[in-house]
Amino acid sequence: MPTRKAIICISTIALIGAAVAWTIWLRQRRGLSQTRHLSDGSVLHLKRASYQKPYRIRTGTRWQDYLGVALSDSLAKKLDARFVTAGGRTNALDFWLEWSGFPASRPALRAATFDEHGCEFGLTSPDHSLSVGRAEALVFQFTEFPRRSKDVGFRLYQRETNYTWSKIAEFHVTNPNPRAYPVWQGEPLPITRSISNADITLVELKTGILARTSPAQPAIPGEHPGAAATFRLSQNGRPTSAWELADFKGITDACGQTVARGGYAAGMTSSGNYRVIVDGGLCVEEAAWKVEAEFARAADFPNEELWTIRAIAVPKKNSATSMDATTNLYGSYLEFRGVSSVGHPAPLLRRSLANEPVAHVVCTNLASNLQLKFVRAVDDRGRNVSNRGRASDPPNHVFGLALPADARTIDLTFAVTRRVPVQYLVKPSQITASELKKLKR
């Protein structure tokens, strides 16, 4: 008959064995849940999802390479272990995937994170793509992701031969950085901000469209999601063209994530409003987004913002008129260099306006809250000369001129005007089915 000690020993061994078996089963189950078998026979496995933590990916198959990913830097270096270090970027979420059996000519890839509402964040290409034995390691890094959610979705797209994007896999992971965030309260639309003698009214903020595309188009899976901010510009209750958008500064949520900086598409709507279409990529279910933009005068400049250079000789073809005129507006030093005709190589910046005479202005210290504007040009017969575009590579600025063939001199007027910031806290809304139908027409 077994002794009490033997019974305890056997029970302990059984418990340890059960715990090991349970751990192995859980790992296998977790591994299966993070593995996707694709239609082409390849296998995609999610190796890691981490927040702000650096990690190593081996790039060789020697025993030293396997050990190197776990050893200290000094020991890994002594072993000559082959690996790359990924992750660790401040405030960023990483997804590391391993793709085995992928096609010889792998298609282009994009990925996004998404939340429980289906909102996509941070559409991006791989930050790393490298061979690991017979597999490929892919690392996607996101600075925007669903930070409030308990779980974070990951969606992978590949580009098809017709240049559309198709979804090939999805994964779900526990949010590695759970925390509480503030909740902003939006103002009811429309929201008006008064600047100088003008009113800038945010009429609506819509999502569910394609980014940076005007006129607005419905969103397309695998393409960058967009948002459309519609403004009404008025003076004394009437529409005005004396003010214009100088820059769109971005859209921010209460989690501290900002999108829509940089490029945008803009145009007038049929109702005379001004619509700006930017990158979206935040959750439409947020109580409010912060919309920030800058507007500046486009006409009706006060005298203190204007600078006129008179009686500038119109150069003949392949030549230039040099002139040394200077002024100082709002602390910005401006120098007028002259007019270059068609065929004259200088300044180099004029290449984008090669088929037009150009006026050349240099401003070495134009502050970020100011902008240089072409106001008007008048020739010696009193005719208005149209502006044919501009090119800028600070401190150099060139302005195209539609000069009449018989013009002998011109007067040029420029303005240095202030950019005025505006800010709105607004609840975004998804574009409706009926609105989408109108976009598709």
Structure description:
The chain is mainly beta. It has three domains: 108 residues, Conserved domain protein (Immunoglobulin-like, Sandwich); 128 residues, Immunoglobulin-like; 118 residues, Immunoglobulin-like, CATH 2.60.40. It is 11% helix and 47% strand. It has four helices and 30 strands. The longest helix is centred in the N-terminal third of the chain and has 30 residues. The protein is elongated, with a radius of gyration of 30 Å.
How would you summarize the topology of this molecule?
Layout: H1 4-33, E1 35-37, E2 43-51, E3 55-58, H2 63-68, H3 73-78, E4 83-86, E5 93-100, E6 109-114, E7 120-124, E8 128-132, E9 135-142, E10 151-159, E11 165-174, E12 191-195, E13 198-210, E14 225-235, E15 238-239, E16 243-252, E17 258-259, E18 265-268, E19 274-279, E20 289-297, E21 306-313, E22 320-329, E23 332-340, E24 358-363, E25 370-379, E26 387-393, E27 396-401, E28 409-418, E29 420-426, E30 429-430, H4 433-440
Parallel strand pairs: 13-30
Antiparallel strand pairs: 1-2, 2-5, 3-4, 5-9, 6-7, 6-10, 8-9, 10-11, 12-13, 13-14, 14-15, 14-19, 16-17, 16-20, 18-19, 20-29, 21-28, 22-23, 23-24, 24-27, 25-28, 26-27
List its salient traits.
single chain; 441 residues; mainly beta; Immunoglobulin-like; 3 domains; 7-stranded mixed β-sheet; 5-stranded antiparallel β-sheet; 4 helices; 11% helix; 47% strand
